[in-house]
Amino acid sequence: RTDLMNRSRQVSAESFDISLGMDSTVISVQLSIDDINHIKATEMFGLSVADTWITITRDLVDDMNRNPVIAIPNGLALQATNFTPDTTRPFLLSYHFDFIFEEMTLNFNEPINVSMIDYTAITVQDALVANDSYMLTGGTATAFDYSLVLVIAFDEVDIEFFKMHPSLTTSVEDTHLTFTSDAFFDLATVPNPIIPLVDGVNATQVSNFTYYESPVFTSVRPTAGRAAGGTLLTIRGDNFGSLFGEPGEREIDVLIQFVPTLDVTVIETNTVITALTPQADVSDIGTPVTLTITIDNSALMLNISEAFTYLSPPVITRLFPTAGTQAGGTILTVYGDNFGPSTDSGEGPIVTVDIDDVPCDNVTVVNDTVLTCISPPLLPGSHNFTLTVDEVAVTEVDGFNSLDQATVESISPDSTYRFTPTQVVITGTNFGPTTDSEDANPLSVFLISEFNITECTDPIVLVEDSVLTCLALPNLGPSNISVVVDGVVSLPSDVTFFHYDDAGNFSFEVEEFLISETELYANVSVIRHDYPPFASPANVSIWAFDRTAVSGTHFEATNQTAYVPYMVNTVIFQIRITAAAFQPERLRKGEIDDVAINLLITNVSPLHGNATISRDSSILTIRAVCQIVSHVCVASWDLDQVVYYRLDELP
Question: What own/partner pairs with CB < 8 Å and gap ≥ 24 does 254-263 have?
């Protein structure tokens, strides 16, 4: 710049001799583009004779005898004797739009004067021949690479327009640039204006276009919520927020059916958005509506149809069962409407169930109309039942009854044959609602003996809480009765049900006779033998009658029935045989009065099962051995089954 170096450029190796190799006193050097641009870009340097000087070293050239040239050092620099100024007009080589950093990068063929840019002379249009266009209002330019590269940061008004405009600067295809010659100037002493880009002639398409990657939608949870609004949405996807190094935060908006949500927040490195739903329009309730995600005032927009449903308040139409054990653990099924998507889908709102403010466990939404849960431990009695879907609650007053432990008070009948299924009626407490009500609890009845546990099948509650019936299946022996209501076993009880076996085999055995002046008593035993364990009780009937007496009125026939209980194997019949023709002072008995008394087991009727008779008849023979008056006449029983009368005082 002067004879003393304060601005300089050392010519690079890329500059070359253009003397065509001829020895001469004149050497012509073609400066490289890089050297030229550096000189042009340096302020107040190489503009005229006054600020153009040269220094050389002795290595520049030799004379014909290989003598080096005399160096011209700094401080003794040689001023130019002639200077031809720059009159070449600059032109645009290419440009790049970057919407992430909100800037435009322009590449020129020579250095540009940053201080002389007229932003309003620059127009962005959609094609070579404009259908749509926009003129810049301002900007801030920064020069790089010897002012060959200008980076223009868009004015906020301009970038907002570009981002929102649907048919301009959305891609390479609809981004073209025009400008007048007043837009840019080079750094010459007399600045040269840019070669203009003219609409319809040489409007230049953008060479590269950097935009946000389009937002990617993966899911929204929940996909349903209360119509009043305020449901917290979690939207997952990608490219929701600013990238590292962006000049500012992106403006993210989420809309439900085109109504803005509240408190929109981007979290987890641009992959998750949270937002609160707005209040629904009445017309939108119950119908899937559109979810919209916009970035930077709709610069990028993503519409997801039928992505969210506003729910009407939940409705309970039925609770099953309406009663359960006080210990909890009852599986409850709630029928109704507006419960939202299933729990398994992971798309539903928060759903809770409370019984008198005590939460149920494992609340599971099956679908929009059915859910299940498990009742908590409760005190016995009636309780309010509350269902809450996304903070909207509905309550069934006294909707659930907590049952105390069941008890068994009686069973009818109380016994049966071991192989015969028998319908029984059981009374007690806390059996739950009647079966016909369709609100009955899970119910089982078991008969527990020392040999086996059998179920009393098809239990039906006939009277709420107190009477049930079921079919007792075969078993053996006495059984305790266990009623299981909603998985809880009834309290221990003394009430039993007996499965009897066959009654056994029955036969006669005469034990003793008692003789008086006028009567004969015979104690006759009927014996049960060959009987199984738990033999059934039975009614045994016998008949005592006379077939041989000369005097038909001498003895009276008798019919008797006796009950043989369980675990009793002998029953005694006392047969009274009356001497109706007795007259005092006469001989008591004689040969003509010999009589045979017939004994017959007419029937054995067991309470349950079968019975057999091994000896169904017996003949009692009475023979007189005393022919005179006697105060005592004793009968004896011999091995021949004959009773002999004798005088106890005679030899």
Answer: 254/291, 254/292, 254/293, 254/294, 255/291, 255/292, 255/294, 256/280, 256/289, 256/290, 256/291, 256/292, 256/308, 257/281, 257/284, 257/289, 257/290, 258/290, 258/292, 261/233
Structure-token pair, residue 231 = 């449901």
Q: Taking the CA of residue 149 as centre, how many other CA atoms within 13 Å lie in the half-sphere pointing to its CB?
A: 7
* Coil vs helix vs strand at 369: coil
Convert the pLDDT of each residue in 146-171 to its tens digit. Answer: 899 999 999 989 988 888 888 899 88
DSSP string, 248-265: S---EEEEETTEE-EEEE
Residue with token string 């022919």: 627
Rounded CA gap, 618 and 614, in Å? 12
pTM here is 0.59
| Cα–Cα distance, 647 to 639 (Å, whole number) | 20
Whole-Å CA distances, 621 to 79, 225, 297, 520, 548: 178, 102, 127, 12, 10
pLDDT value for 296: 72
| Pairwise CA distance, residues 24 & 36, whole Å | 25
Amino acid at 573: F
Closest by CA to 152, choosing from 204, 103, 102, 92, is: 103
Determine the average pLDDT of the residues in 283-305: 85
- Residue 347: pLDDT band with limits 50, 70, 90: very high
Is residue 411 a contact partner of residue 428, using CB atoms and an 8 Å limit?
A: no
pLDDT confidence tier of residue 631, bands split at 50, 70 and 90: very low
* 615 vs 361: CA distance, rounded Å: 70
Nearest partner of 490 among 586, 409, 579, 611, judged by Cα: 409
Cβ-in-10-Å burial (0-12, 13-18, 19+) of 176 comes to buried
pLDDT score recorded for residue 513: 60
From the list 220, 219, 212, the residue with the least C-alpha distance to 240 is: 212
Question: Is 50 exceeded by the pLDDT of residue 327?
Answer: yes
A 10 A CB-CB count for 530 gives 12
Rg of the chain (C-alpha set): 60
C-alpha dist (Å) from residue 62 to 2, 54, 72, 420: 26, 18, 14, 136
527 three-state secondary structure: strand
Task: Decide: 52 and 86 in contact? Cβ < 8 Å.
Answer: no
Half-sphere exposure (Cβ direction) of 390: Cα atoms closer than 13 Å: 28
pLDDT-above-70 percentage for the chain: 83
